[in-house]
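STRUCTURE:
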């Protein structure tokens, strides 16, 4: 993400009105706007693979998956982000036209320029959403997925999925997205993806 050079801060409504007129997408936090940088082909393919699996699994259910062009609002006043993939099962989001406010699942495909924010400030802000239960961080360089899940005690637990850590093949590593009850092999996320470490 790249911050705009203009030093004046925007109100949430000014940002929403202004961004509608822009050719690029911008995230919004604490009055500042940040241009969204383009991702790699691997980044895009991983997001498509995950969204396709979610769309197929959730067909006919009240849950809806969204990709990078769908805006997420932490609160009505922001911050506002564009997660790579998210799912909402909340009926309040069914009436929304522009912004999702109640996701249960969010995934970010990591890149060197965004990884720090995805692990830090974004995750802290995502946890402010009362419906949010599961967060996936997916590497675009190597087969590695980290999933944080909210347990019954209100603590976030981390599970890591990667062939070296699990001492098995990607086809045999089962990922279970508990927030939407979806099982799939790690290899599905990386189907047709050319990895840097290959």
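SEQUENCE:
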């Amino acid at each position: 993400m790249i911050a705009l050079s203009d030093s004046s801060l925007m109100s949430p409504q000014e940002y929403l009105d202004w961004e509608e007129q822009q050719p690029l997408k911008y995230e919004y936090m604490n009055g500042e706007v940040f241009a969204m940088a383009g991702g790699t082909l691997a980044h895009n393919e991983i997001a498509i693979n995950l969204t396709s699996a979610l769309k197929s699994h959730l067909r006919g259910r009240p849950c809806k998956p969204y990709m990078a062009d769908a805006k997420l609002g932490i609160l009505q006043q922001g911050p506002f982000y564009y997660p790579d993939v998210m799912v909402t099962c909340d009926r309040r989001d069914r009436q929304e036209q522009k912004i999702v406010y109640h996701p249960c699942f969010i995934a970010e495909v990591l890149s060197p320029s965004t990884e720090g924010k995805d692990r830090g400030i974004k995750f802290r802000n995502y946890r402010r959403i009362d419906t949010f239960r599961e967060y996936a961080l997916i590497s675009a360089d190597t087969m590695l997925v980290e999933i944080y899940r909210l347990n019954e005690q209100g603590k976030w637990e981390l599970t890591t999925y990667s062939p070296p850590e699990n001492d098995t093949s990607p086809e045999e590593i089962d990922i279970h997205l508990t927030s939407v009850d979806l099982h799939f092999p790690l290899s599905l996320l990386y189907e047709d993806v050319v990895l840097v470490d290959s």
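REMARK: The longest helix spans residues 41-58.
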